[in-house]
Every structure is written in structure tokens, then in C-alpha cells.
Amino acid sequence: MSRKCSLTGRSRMVVHRVTRRGRARAAGGVGRKVTGKHRRVQKANLQKKRVLTSGTVRTVWLSARALRSVTAGRVPGVQLR
């Protein structure tokens, strides 16, 4: 089972870690300069939950946002167990 939200499809996302040098203008410097950008992986906030869907109980990965929607009853046919 892949780490992917079964309702929204959220999974990992590639982002940059930005390295800077210098002093900020507000602090009396000439400004911050970017010296490097490195790729990194940012993981989604996924939780493993048991849900009841179409009469069967399954264990699925749910993102935090999808979990809030299921708890509030905004997703028809899906209930937490």
C-alpha cells in the first residue's frame, strides 16, 4: 500500500531548501543573498485509519484534511471505525 491519501490523492512533494547569507536590510545590512537551493522531499500529513465504505471495513491512508472532512460527515459513504 503506497503512502498516498485514498480520498484526496496527496502524497510527497518536492520542495527546495534555500541557503542564504548576509544580514537583513531591516537589521542594517545590505540584504540576504541566496547561495544555494537543494531539493528535498516534504511528506504529506497522512494517518492510517480504519474506514467503513460500502459495507466493508478497510485500513487506508488519509490526509489530515480528508480526516477532518470524514469526521464532519462531508464525505458521503465513508465512516470512521
Automatic annotation (TrEMBL):
Could you read off the lineage of the organism from its UniProt record?
Bacteria, Thermotogati, Deinococcota, Deinococci, Deinococcales
This protein's source sits in the domain of life called Bacteria
Q: What is this protein called?
A: Large ribosomal subunit protein bL28
| Keywords, comma-separated and alphabetical | Ribonucleoprotein, Ribosomal protein
Stated family: Belongs to the bacterial ribosomal protein bL28 family.
Give the compositionally biased regions (Basic residues): 34-45
UniProt region (Disordered), positions on chain? 21-45
A Gene Ontology biological process term: translation
Question: Which Pfam families did the record assign?
Answer: Ribosomal_L28 (PF00830)
Q: Which NCBIfam families does the protein's record reference?
A: L28 (TIGR00009)
Q: Enumerate the GO terms in the molecular function aspect.
A: structural constituent of ribosome
Q: Which GO terms describe its cellular component?
A: ribonucleoprotein complex; ribosome
